[in-house]
Amino acid sequence: MNPLAVGSNVTLNLVPQSPINIGTWSYETTIIVLFYPNGSSVSTSYQGRVSFNRSSSELSISSLQLNDSGLYTVQGMEPVLCAVVTLSVREPISNVTLRANATDLVELNDTAIFTCSVSSGTSLSYRWLNDSSEVTASDRVRLGGGNSTLTIVGVTRYDEGPFRCEVVNGISNGTSQPIGLNFRFGPERPAVNSPDIALTGHIVTFNCSASSQPPSQFNWFFNGSQVATGSVYETGPLTLASHGEYTCVAFNNITGRNSTVSKMLTIIVNMAMVKVMGSQPIADYMFMMTCDTVGTIYFIHWMRNGWPLYAENRTDFSMNNNTLTFNSVQHSDNGDYQCSASNSLSNMTSPEYKLIVNYGPERPVIISPDIAMIRHIVTFNCSAFSQPPSQFSWFFNGSQVAAGSVYETDLLTLDSHGEYTCVAFNNITGRNRSVSKMLTIIGKTEESSKLWRLGQCMRLAH
Prior knowledge:
The protein is mainly beta. The strands form twelve sheets. Strands 5-4-3-8-9 form a five-stranded antiparallel β-sheet, with no helix packed on it. Strands 22-28-27-24-25 form a five-stranded mixed β-sheet, with no helix packed on it. Strands 31, 32, 35, 36 and 37 form a five-stranded antiparallel β-sheet that branches.
């Protein structure tokens, strides 16, 4: 039956029922009723609120008050017995009210204090709710005043609520209206949205954002010097001097806090030309080709006849790959060479560079008769493998007599007998080679005719 509400009625009885001939009902140390075989006597202070049932020994109290709470005792002398009961009379709860010291708070700085009160009610128990979750004491959360106050130290945005207090006392309950908190926080670390690399002449837009309440104010700095305000910063046309660190500073004028983030912008020059350059290649000598570029270059790759080219025993690349070196260039290295240059934004491949290795002359070859008759004309033909083609000079017994690969003599005489030398010269390699041939001259006698015919036969046999 406990607890009981103020104004309610209660009957106290023995269980099991046991009639008492002589005894008393007492409240604490005050006798309420004295009863005996011929009657009973009610204390003056209880008259009108108390009734006693003689046959069952029950005591009824009407219109209970708060001061009726306490220990009630029935004492029997005939028969001898004693029984006690404790009554708890409580006032019903009404008008549960929740108050906060402030509802606009700065995150981490401020303390929230909630106070829960009622217009009426006794023996109160309090329970706190953050939205639908019960709030319990912790390092930041403190309960005081019999749990009627809730203190949150160093509030965060996750403490926004809504908060309510529930009050119960066993006979009634009540819940307050909710209170939510508004937080001023941030800025948290900003985020910058922008490219990392850009071309000269282009315009770059930087966007800065940060979680903050109220929204942050923004300032922009380039290499330490302020250049703009606002969350968006748009550069002018970029130059190489635009390369550097761009910093966004977010500031919250309520929390008094700021946060910064920086981003590097790399400026590159657009590629305008890629071309293979080389000097005159001469066989067996070192030869270099250079990838000549205009613009910002990060990588260079070489190709021969459309296939990738790699370093090997006779070829090597410079550290940045812009130079291809042949330690000893050969005919077999002939081909169409290209270099491909690239950066983070573009790539370009050069036109073909046709490599033709200059060489020679190799040892010349003379085609001519070995024997000739006087008054005849002899034609000497000289050839030699060479790139570019060789120039030729003719010498007779040490004296130059002609230029060109073909030398045709005048009418032969006996003085035309001797050594004919062909000299091949390559004006690119700077090299020359020579070969000599003896020409025998015979007169028109029978013997010489035989010799001449024999010479002709031998030449045909060759």
